[in-house]
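[job 0417] fold request received: Thioredoxin domain-containing protein
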Amino acid sequence: METLYKIAAIFFDIIFVLLVSYFTFVFGLRLYWKFKSKRMRGQELPILEGEFLRLKRGKGVIYFHAPNCRPCKFIDPVIKKLSKELKKVAFIKVNIAEKPELARKFGILATPSIIITKDGHIEEVLMGPVTEGTLREKLK
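[job 0417] inference complete; emitting structure tokens
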């Protein structure tokens, strides 16, 4: 019976260490994303050619998504709706599965990611899913 208690204690210790490691990793990654997005604000866009020329003047949105990303599937209709409603805002969708080099140039770590631009400079970076209200507020 004593060996059974020792095995159970070891098992629970391993589970505890794994859970703490997981939460530490996720929390650290979130902190890094927040720090990185703050650092990106005010920087000039790394690419201002092709379809990105539309972002040189006025407000713009660059939406990075992936075809197998579940949160992206929830944000896609919001992006489509806002792109139809807000005619003064230029919307660009980038599929990172097709264009991974663009994601690298912009420093995108996760999908969905939304970069809001103004006059060719990064105004804000939103990583992860956002609501329509939040996005609408940021684009005013």
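[job 0417] notes: The longest strand covers residues 59-65. The chain is about 50% helix and 20% strand.
[job 0417] exit 0
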